[in-house]
Amino acid sequence: MPVYLRRHIMMKGEYARLLLSGKKRATVRLGKVIPKYDEVIIHSWGRPIAKARIVNVVHKKVRELTDEDAIKDGFKSREELINELKNVYGNVSPDDLVTIIELDIVQRFDKLIPEDPYLGLKPADIGR
């Protein structure tokens, strides 16, 4: 059964740092995740940290993950990625489905403009 991703993606702090630095360009989630929107707000450290555009979504089984998938997600190897999936989700089997969501940062929220009444955001982003 698919899970529909709305406008927000939660991310652990260590992964958020990698995303903001450009070393992480994707997130791998257990199960079939279907984004409903092209842009999402990334949250970490208890607040929104960036707006990102979803540039690609791939569904595959854990056994089909590659080192390239792992590197996009900020890991050094496929094995390291799979170990982290097990750490986060518990029991993960080779036949489990995962979703690779590739992201492109559109705007970082740590560089907002305090003088601007909308802090450099669009009113639609504030409403979200």
Topology:
Layout: E1 3-5, E2 8-10, H1 13-21, E3 26-30, E4 33-35, E5 39-44, E6 47-61, H2 67-72, H3 78-89, E7 97-108, H4 123-127
Parallel strand pairs: 1-4, 2-5
Antiparallel strand pairs: 3-7, 5-6, 6-7
Structural commentary:
With 128 residues, this protein is of the alpha/beta class. It is built from four helices and seven strands. It has helices at 13-21, 67-72, 78-89, 123-127; strands spanning 3-5, 8-10, 26-30, 33-35, 39-44, 47-61, 97-108. The strands form two sheets. A five-stranded mixed β-sheet has the order 2-5-6-7-3. Strands 1-4 form a two-stranded parallel ribbon.
Q: How would you sum up this structure in a few lines?
A:
The chain is of the alpha/beta class. About 25% of the residues lie in helices and about 35% in strands. The longest helix is centred in the middle third of the chain and has 12 residues, at about 80-90.
Helix tally? Answer: 4
Unreliable stretches (pLDDT < 50, length at least 5) are none
Please identify the structural class as seen in this structure: alpha/beta
Average pLDDT score: 91
| Topology pattern, helix = H, strand = E | EEHEEEEHHEH
- Oligomerization state of this entry? single chain
Give the % helix: 25-40%
User: Radius of gyration from the CA trace?
Assistant: 15 Å
Shape: globular
Strand percentage, roughly?
Answer: 35-45%
Strand order of the largest sheet: 2-5-6-7-3
Counted beta strands: 7
Largest sheet: 5 strands, mixed
Q: How far is it from the N-terminal to the C-terminal residue, by CA?
A: 26 Å
